[in-house]
C-alpha cells in the first residue's frame, strides 16, 4: 500500500527496527529500491531531494510509487527530503507525496518552531506526515558543504519543546553523522542519542547513513532510531557501475545493457541495508 511515514514508523517502533529511507537520484533507481524491499518483506521509504523531484516530476514519482506498492504488495512511503522552502513542500504535498521533511535546522530555534508548525498545519489537512530537524548534520548536502564549526548536536531540552510545540511525526537528530561521507566512517555520540531518546517520545531519524558503521546500526536502533537515511552509497554504487559499463560497451548498444547492472547494484545495496535495519542479530 501507499502509506505515510507515521504509519510505518509506528510499526517499526513496536518491532524495535528501523525503516530504510533511500534517496533515489533519478526515476530509474526507484523500481530497484522497491523490489529490494519486496524481497526483504519490509516497508520502504523512497525519498527525493527537491532537485530530483523537480527534474523527474513529482507526479511521476507519486504514480510509480503507488503502482509498484500495489503490484508488489509493499508498503511504500514517498518522502520529500530536506525541503527548506514552504513552496516546495506545498508542491510535493499537492502532487501526492505521503511525507515531507521541513529542514529549518539552520534557522534560529524559535523560527524553526514557527515554520515547522506552519508546515505541520498544512500537511495535516492532506493527511501527510512531517519530519523536522534540530541541530546540524555535517557534510555535503545537495552540493552544499556544512563546515564542521557550524555543526551542533541536538539539545535534548530543546527537542522536548520542539516536538511539543510543532506536533511533528519524526525528529531528525544531529549526533555526529555527516551527509555524503563514503570514504570513511562516523564516530556517533551514543550518549547524545540516549539523552534525546529519554527526553522525547517520537520516532528518531538518522541522516548520513552511508557513513554509519555496520556495527553501530544495532546500537542506534536500540536507542530509538526508526528511520535510517541512505543516499550517497546508492549514488556512488550507481556511478561506479555506470562508468564501468559505459566504458566497456559499444556506443550503439541498447542503453539497458548499461542501466540494468546499475539497477542490480542498487538492489544489492538496498537489500543489505534493509537486512541490517531489521535489527534481528543478537
Ligand atoms: P548519505 O547520503 O550520507 O547516506 O545521507 C543521506 C541522507 O541523510 C539524506 O537526507
TrEMBL record:
| Biological process annotations from GO | carbohydrate metabolic process
- Give yes or no: UniProt keyword Zinc: yes
Q: Where is the active site?
A: 81 (proton donor)
Q: Where does Zn(2+) 1 bind?
A: 82, 179, 207
Superkingdom classification of source: Bacteria
Which cofactors are required for activity?
Answer: Zn(2+)
* Cofactor stoichiometry and binding remark: Binds 2 Zn(2+) ions per subunit. One is catalytic and the other provides a structural contribution.
Q: Which UniProt keywords apply?
A: Metal-binding, Zinc
The UniProt transmembrane annotation reads: none
Positions annotated to bind Zn(2+) 2: 103, 133
GO molecular-function annotation terms?
Answer: aldehyde-lyase activity; zinc ion binding
Residues annotated to bind dihydroxyacetone phosphate: 180, 208-210, 229-232
PANTHER family reported for this sequence:
D-TAGATOSE-1,6-BISPHOSPHATE ALDOLASE, D-TAGATOSE-1,6-BISPHOSPHATE ALDOLASE SUBUNIT GATY-RELATED
Full protein name: Class II fructose-bisphosphate aldolase
Q: Which organism is it from?
A: Lactobacillus helsingborgensis
Amino acid at each position: 500500500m501507499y502509506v505515510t511515514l507515521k504509519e510505518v514508523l509506528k510499526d517499526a517502533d513496536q518491532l524495535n527496527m528501523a525503516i530504510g529511507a533511500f534517496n533515489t537520484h533519478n526515476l530509474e533507481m526507484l523500481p530497484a529500491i522497491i523490489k529490494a524491499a519486496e524481497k526483504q518483506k519490509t516497508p520502504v521509504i523512497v525519498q527525493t531531494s527537491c532537485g530530483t523531484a523537480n527534474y523527474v516530476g513529482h507526479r511521476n514519482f507519486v504514480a510509480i510509487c503507488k503502482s509498484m506498492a500495489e503490484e508488489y504488495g509493499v508498503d511504500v512511503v514517498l518522502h520529500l527530503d530536506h525541503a527548506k522552502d514552504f513552496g516546495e513542500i506545498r508542491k510535493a504535498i499537492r502532487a501526492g507525496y505521503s511525507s515531507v521533511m521541513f529542514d529549518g535546522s539552520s534557522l534560529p530555534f524559535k523560527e524553526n518552531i514557527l515554520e515547522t508548525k506552519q508546515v505541520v498545519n498544512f500537511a495535516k489537512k492532506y493527511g501527510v506526515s512531517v519530519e523536522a530537524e534540530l541541530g546540524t548534520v555535517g557534510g555535503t548536502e545537495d552540493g552544499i558543504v556544512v563546515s564542521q564549526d557550524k555543526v551542533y548536536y541536538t539539545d535534548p531540552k530543546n527537542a522536548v519543546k520542539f516536538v511539543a510545540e510543532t506536533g511533528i511525526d519524526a525528529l531528525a537528530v544531529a549526533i555526529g553523522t555527516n551527509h555524503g561521507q563514503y570514504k570513511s566512517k562516523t564516530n556517533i555520540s551514543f550518549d547524545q542519542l540516549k539523552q534525546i531518546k529519554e527526553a522525547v517520545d517520537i520516532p528518531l531519524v538518522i541522516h548520513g547513513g552511508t557513513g554509519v558503521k555496520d556495527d553501530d546500526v544495532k546500537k542506534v536502533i536500540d536507542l530509538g532510531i526508526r528511520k535510517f537515511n541512505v543516499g550517497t552509497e546508492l549514488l556512488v554504487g550507481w556511478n561506479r557501475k555506470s562508468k564501468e559499463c559505459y566504458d566497456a560497451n559499444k556506443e550503439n548498444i541498447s542503453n539497458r545493457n548499461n542501466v540494468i547492472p546499475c539497477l542490480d547494484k542498487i538492489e544489492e545495496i538496498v537489500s543489505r541495508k534493509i537486512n541490517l535495519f531489521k535489527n534481528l542479530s543478537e
